[in-house]
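Q: My labmate handed me this sequence with no annotations at all. I'd like to see what the chain might look like in three dimensions before we decide whether it's worth expressing. Could you predict it?
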Amino acid sequence: MQAFPETTNHHLHRLRSDHRPILVDVKSGCPLPNQVRPFRFLAPWISHDDFPNVLDRGWRPQEGYLVSMQGLTEKLKVWNKEVFGNIFQRKKELRSRLSKLEMINYQQPSDITIQEENEVRNLMEETLWEEEVLWIQKSRTKRTVFGDQNYRYFHLSTLSRRQKNRIKCLKDAAGQWISDPTQLQTLARGFYVDLYTEEMHDHDCIKGDFPELELQEMEMLIKELTEEELMRAVKDMAGLKSPGKNGYHAVFF
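A: Here is what I predict for the chain of 253 residues:
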């Protein structure tokens, strides 16, 4: 089961035996067909030397915040594909190159191959660090684990969080269990449509002797926020927790 962490177990009905068979579904974690993956800002991007240039090219403050964010998002998508690349694929390629160079330098070393091995080794260390940051971001945990297997902890935390957040089946109004992904979407949407379209009910005023706010306190509550207060609130947020609906984590700001 550790090799397939996204499997699900189903207890089937008893037939002739007094035992209920267990069905192990290894495809339950597969995404829905034609499902569009939303944009997600990747924390490892920040450490790339070219990232400030992408910000300069994509951010247009004269056009407003929303337009600037949309433009930057499109720039980052292209930049991630053409420049930054896939961390896991890069790690695989660097590992292969490093293995070949180690063999060459063991059998017939030269200044050029030794220098190349050192460069590849440095790139490998950077890539491993980026991978660990990515798993920390995906796990959305504050905990710091020291040791040689840090990324494994955050990897397992990510898989555990995904399992907890994934809805695999729901019971409808007739008491039937629904597991089809399309029907689950319809059922969930219908539930909230019914929930927020209920008729309003009048409630009697709550009577009692409650303390009142002073005028100074009321003015403090309705005054406009300052830029310093906004920045302080953003900086106090956990940088790698859940992103906003635009896909950006607090660490970006």
